[in-house]
Predict the structure.
Amino acid sequence: MKEKKTKAAKKPLPGKDREEKKLAIKRKKTQIVLAVLLVYLVVMVAAAIIIDDRHIEITLIGPDVDIAEVGETYVDLGAQAFLTGNLFGKSVNPVEIKTESGVDVDEIGDYTVKYTAEAFGKTAVSYRQVLVRDTTPPVITLNHEEGYLASWLVGYSEEGFTAIDNYDGDLTDKVVRTEVEDTVYYSVKDSSGNETAVERKIEYGVSEPMIRLEGGEEINVGAAFTFTDPGYEAIDESGNDLTAYVKVTGEVIPYELGTYTLDYYIMNEQGETATARRIVNVVPQAKVETVMPERKTIYLTFDDGPGPYTAQLLDVLARYGAKATFFVTGNGQNYDRDYTDMIGRAFREGHAIGVHTLTHDYAAVYASRDAFFNDFNAMEDIIFEQTGQYTKLFRFPGGSSNTISRNYCYGIMSSLANYMTNMGYVYFDWNVDSGDALGGARSSYTVANNVAEGCLENTVNVVLQHDTKDFSVAAVESILRWGTNNGYVFEALDESSYGAHHGINN
Ligand code: ZN
């Protein structure tokens, strides 16, 4: 077989056929080469495309995580996008970027900005984080009143302040305020922890206030039941009235003659004091000189009333145009009706009113100085109600010479006589006793007779009667008639009248 084939191949062909055959072979070879080249080319291009891996690349301008201040404008720095590949590199023209920003600068928080680029069916996405934060501390503003100075006494009085935060708003209520010596510290934190602290130096008024004493640093006051300070005021350099802060120490015994010291002071919180001192001399009240009447005079005096017979007595006195003196007590209130108003009537009809004490109770009024004073003044108040004035006239229950007071308080009569005289009161005893009380007289006749006999011995007569005794009151008309007929005038006592003092025995 093999042989056959070789013989056949060596078999010569006609010339034309041979040429055509050679050409066809050559053409075929060329075609094959071309096909191989094409395949190679395709493979190479595909390989290049795969290796290049063309895609969109986004690059952020600025940091990946940005911080924005709350409340302020935030400007996004943006990004760039290009098509790019491993083999052929970045294309020249950028790809358009779509930016989506969720940033709210008015609200603290973490936000995202999204960048998207699309080209040739490819998409790329990139993100930036934006942190909206508050890093601005609040602002504290201190108010100041022009010319204000802290007081020496009451210290600094806050002039006011405000704290405003860019995010939290008004934080004035949250300010922590402390005062240490001459400085006030204010601090406040906002909700993000930003803190502000400011301070204020306190400026004080220059010095302590002056205490100015009305009436002077040494005064003389007449003895009295009560002492009333003439007054004072304390003003500091800023013009603040600090009078209400003044404290007074020391005591004046207003009815006891002597020299007293009163200290006025204001103490501030630091324990510093502003002081003033006053000397008070308690001196006797000016004494009214006794004037003896030139005419023969009878001073009828009626003790222990008013009572049921006082009106009748006033009628008789009025008929004769005679004036008398009533040493009154609170006994008028002890009857089935109250005769207190007779005090007012007697006063209005020109008679003198004197105190005889409210209770006329020896044990009570002579128990002590204060007991007497209280009882005396209680009666004075009634007299004031009745007459519109206080009286300076009085008669001791039992008279100044009484010895019964020894049972209650030794020496009280001389001390009371002294106190009362120093205070300007004038006490009266009597030099004619009608005998209507202890004297044993029980009839108008005896009373009138006693008075007439007594008066014959003196020019100036202070007659003791009691308008609480009907027979004594009934004797008055004959006394008036007898006196008038014998050249006497009937007068009311006053501060200059003869006291007819008996002499003190206790
Ligand atoms: Zn009496």
User: Anything to note?
Assistant: The CA atoms of residues 55 and 83 lie 5 Å apart. Residues 15-52 form the longest helix (38 residues).
